[in-house]
Amino acid sequence: MLAACAQAAVAGTVTGLVTDENGAPVAGVNVEIVYQTYNSDDLPYGGASIKQTAVTGEDGRYSVSTDRMPPGIYSAHAYRVVINGSRRINLDFRTDDDSTFGGHEDVVRNFKGGYYESTPDDPYGNGGVFVLERSIETDIDLNGAEVTLTDIATGRTIVRTVRPTGEGLVVTGVPYGTYRAEVTLAGQPLRISLMGPGIPEEYAASVTHDFTMGWLENQFRITAKP
Fold first, then answer.
1. Calpha distance 140→178 (Å, rounded)
2. 139/226 Cα distance (integer angstroms)
3. Cis peptide preceding 114, ω within 30 of 0
4. I want to staple 132 with a disulfide (CB 3.0 to 4.6 A). Which of 22, 46, 169, 205 is the partner?
5. Which residues pair with 35 in a beta bridge?
């Protein structure tokens, strides 16, 4: 039945523009138009999704035809492949309209991104997650602590205040890379140490590491004390 549907051509086109947070076009972003009508158990090849893809040009624009695709409902997604440590990670871009559409329709789906701190559906953003915990040697309240992250490769500095989440006090949506971290509380520097299995506590004014810690391998975890 699915093969017969796939032979029934439907004329539709999805077009759009992908930009960064400042509105500049982004080239090399992957856009997927994914078939939504069938459950994965009904799909061939062990549940592989049915989709058409495109890559944005230098002007940030893309165009995908759904001709020769099965009639039904589709969704649009966009991502760019980034490197975190030795891992390739899909960095999602946000769409201005996440509603599904019929394969016969001509629709516009624009995307914006890439790194973001959080959304209502994604409280940890789509980049590195910096996690701050207090040392077991102290009862200091770290709410309101300010984190300074300096990218070792580019020199770019990110300064943010931690926010509480289910993961603890965090800074989220940090572009992947190796950073020097420093933490202050009420203007006073704290001593910090990497935190993780087999990592000795060695407190200093700063710690340098990348975002490859934690079970998702997208975290930079430290403990702090006065």
1. 27
2. 10
3. yes
4. 169
5. 74
**CB neighbour list of residue 42: distance below 8 Å, 6 or more residues apart:** 2
Domains of the chain: 2-112 (2.60.40.10), 128-225 (2.60.40)
**CA–CA gap between residue 6 and residue 70 (Å, rounded):** 4
Buried b (16+ CB within 10 A) or exposed e, 111-135: bbbbbbbeeeeeebbbbbbbbbebb
Under a CB-based contact definition with an 8 Å cutoff, are residues 211 and 158 in contact? Answer: no
pTM of the model: 0.76
Phi, psi of 61, deg, nearest 5: -100, 155
Q: Which of 201, 180, 184 is nearest to 140 (CA)?
A: 184
CA distance 148 to 60: 32
The gap between the terminal CA atoms of the chain, to the nearest Å, is 67
pLDDT at residue 116 above 60?
yes
Residue 16 identity: G
User: Cβ distance 18 to 93 under 8 Å?
Assistant: yes
Per-residue pLDDT reduced to its tens digit, 163-185? 999 889 999 999 999 999 999 99
What DSSP character marks residue 50? P
Angle among Cα 92, 98, 101 to the nearest 5 degrees reads 125
**How far, CA to CA in Å, does 126 sit from each of 41, 91, 121, 156, 217?**
29, 6, 11, 19, 13
Identity of the residue numbered 132: L
